[in-house]
Amino acid sequence: MVSDFPRTLCLLRQEKKISQRKVAGELGVSQALLSHYENGVREPGLSFVVRAADYYGVSADFLLGRTMARDGGAILAEDLTDSSEEKDNVLRGSAASMLSKKLLVNSTSLLYEQVGKERGLARAVSEYMSLALYKVYRLLYAMDEASSKKAFAAPQSVFSELCDAEMKKCEVQLRVLAEKRESVSPDMSLEHVQQNWPRLAPSLLSLLHGVDEKISPEIEKN
After folding, report:
1. What span, in angstroms and rounded, lies between the C-alpha atoms of 31 and 39?
2. I need a labelling partner for 3 at 20 to 30 A (CA). Which of 64, 128, 213, 217 fits?
């Protein structure tokens, strides 16, 4: 049985604020057995998994920890919404927030234009950026004291360090690919970027300049 099952089973019950006794009765098991399932002491049969999925209105894949989408639907690229292309997409927030979002969205689009055809390179970039977004989301999620501590498998106490370790692996992959020049075809020069993506280039150049200024040693600035 998938190790996330006990955590998810317990999370769903807590979300609905239902006692173990009530859930056990409605699922046709003893409270003691349900407690064992929720604590990972015992593994249920498939019939219980199906009943529990129906009871909580989620897919078996979600219950087993195979996806964070409760309906368990497979995610296909053509089905995803690209918010940057929506006609009525309105950015809300302060002027600084709106500017930052546009810089990030445009810069990310340009980056994928450059590396999208290189499978290994695109995978490493995607994993790195996904880890960064996950880490930011978890940090914000932790600010809500009412949020469930069992919503994620990675412990709150160490998720940041785990993300950092995985990001370091991605950096190593990118450096290895960079050393194999024949496998890295994108021209990453700033001149090439400006010539080929004139609408997106200003965002990337602004983002690069801002970060470069922030991380440059003070001694080099003076």
Report:
1. 12
2. 128
Predicted TM-score (pTM) above 0.85: no
State the Cα torsion 163-168-171-172 to the nearest 10°: -140
Cα Rg, the chain, nearest whole Å? 23
CB-CB neighbours of 202 under 10 Å: 15
Euclidean distance between CA atoms 192 and 176, whole angstroms: 23
Question: What are the DSSP calls for 33-93, one per residue?
Answer: HHHHHHTTSS---HHHHHHHHHHHT--HHHHTTS-S-TT-PPP-GGGS--GGG-TT----S
Contact call for residues 99 and 45 (beta carbons, < 8 A): no
Judged by DSSP in three states, 10 sits in helix
CA distance 25 to 5: 19
pLDDT tens-digit series, residues 60-90: 888 888 777 777 665 554 554 455 555 555 5
User: For residue 49, which amino acid is it?
Assistant: V
Whether the Cβ atoms of residue 24 and residue 33 lie closer than 8 Å to each other: yes
